[in-house]
Description:
By secondary structure, the chain is α+β, with helices and mostly antiparallel strands.
Amino acid sequence: xxxxxxxxxxxxxxxxxxxxxxxxxxxxxxxxxxxxxxxxxxxxxxxxxxxxxxxxxxxxxxxxxxxxxxxxxxxxxxxxxxxxxxxxxxxxxxxxxxxxxxxxxxxxxxxxxxxxxxxxxxxxxxxxxxxxxxxxxxxxxxxxxxxxxxxxxxxxxxxxxxxxxxxxxxxxxxxxxxxxxxxxxxxxxxxxxxxxxxxxxxxxxxxx
Length: 208
């Protein structure tokens, strides 16, 4: 079985103003170049508790809410450079954590990792009434350097995925900016985890 890296994102948890971090502001601040129009993804949610906007610009998918900033790279490249620019321009933003997330996927027919057996979920006596939609397993690991590594495996009707979340507690925009420099190390750690512990190879080259 061979896995493919399909999703990469950087998440900054803190107190953001979604009305400030918008496509026009990103262009005016020089955070993204050459684009003055953005493709909105329709993720607009305004309530008493949270305002959230989603859009695409500068080759990245952005989600901005009162509580977090998510920058996702469809090409699986490091979002760190644009995240650092945002944090540099908003140095007084209260920040509490930064995370790097990596998701690898494989067709279910090729999934061979030793996990709790799914056979019982689709046993003959259940097939008349039930069909597997999704199953998940997860583990949270504390690392010596203070990083929390959360690993989750999910399986649905046609595919299987394993995701890695590298979570770091921080107390400032400057601290979060420094943590973005760990993207490549985290990416290599996730691939090493797959190779060393699960004996699974990953298609493609590193994009960091």
